[in-house]
Specification:
Layout (H helix, E strand, L loop, with lengths): L1 H9 L4 H17 L3 H8 L8 E3 L2 E3 L3 E8 L5 H5 L5 E7 L12 E4 L4 E4 L8 H8 L6 E6 L10 H12 L5 E5 L14 H22 L6 E5 L5 H14 L3 E4 L13 H4 L4 E4 L3 H14 L6 E4 L5 H10 L3 E4 L1 H6 L2 H14 L1
Parallel strand pairs: 3-4, 3-13, 4-7, 7-8, 8-9, 9-10, 10-12, 12-13
Antiparallel strand pairs: 1-2, 5-6, 6-11
Length: about 350
Amino acid sequence: MYKFLIRPILFLFDAESVHYFSFSAIKTFSRFGLNRIFRKVFSVNDHKLEREVFGLKFKNPVGLAAGFDKDAKLYNELSDFGFGFIEIGTLTPKPQPGNPKKRLFRLLDDQAIINRMGFNNKGVFEAVEQLKKKHRVLIGGNIGKNKVTTNKDAIKDYLICFEALFEHVDYFVVNVSSPNTPGLRELQDKEPLTDLLKKLKRQSRKLANKHEEKEKPILLKIAPDLSDDQLMDIISIISDAAIDGVIATNTTISRKGLKSHLIISEEKGGLSGKPLAKRSTEVIRFLAEKSNKAFPIIGVGGIHSPEDALEKLDAGADLIQLYTGFIYEGPALVKKINQAILSRTS
């Protein structure tokens, strides 16, 4: 019903406006108890789907990627669509409006999206207030730096977010790979990235001791546009900094092979969706093989079908995340993927 009735209507309107409308609609449906219907229709509950990754137990391996619930307003309601985990953010210390609109574009011929949102969010401390509600699902906290913060001072922003969220999320994601904050990707270089991750790891130990609980897993989200040499550096950095895993991949700045109209396809920003599928899988496979599966990988990028999801898992991903595929295919995709994974274990 979503693809043939709901999506055509939603796609008549501006993409960012539809995003906020959908948020309000899901919230309203949940207030009237329809979330119980969503859970019944879309959730697949079977212990065979459970995964234990970086010390956490996931009820299933299909998550929602960062960028959808930036301010942690809808994580419980979104979990009713069958997700095994929800990643909030990207969050920054101070609120920021992001880049000027229009900044979100659908590429229908490619089943893709270009976004240049620019870490628009209400700030980490506002998100903390939202996260004080009881969680029905595992939560990842995706953190970044404010646009006005120089790369020299970026570590301070990440540490502020890390400390604020420590008691409220189950794992952390360090976002240095968004193409929409000027200069951010420079933090992927070996020296600054190693320094950043080591300091976050030390902070994790410190806060774990302070709150008398376990350290929180730290993952690094990387760009799909890295070369093989840079990916080898990533493997080395993960080992050196002793962090817990990788999310592969963020959006791409490449526009290779797009079918959509030139005016739309040349919009600045990060491209997600089907055109990213092949490259993100290549990065997953490279990291898994070259590291000898030394760390867990969350695979994301171009998952629009159960077959796409299984391909990521076969390449070496331990968990997967949806974003653009969820928008194009609807919540039934979560169920179909979990059913496909389950059928392999039968």
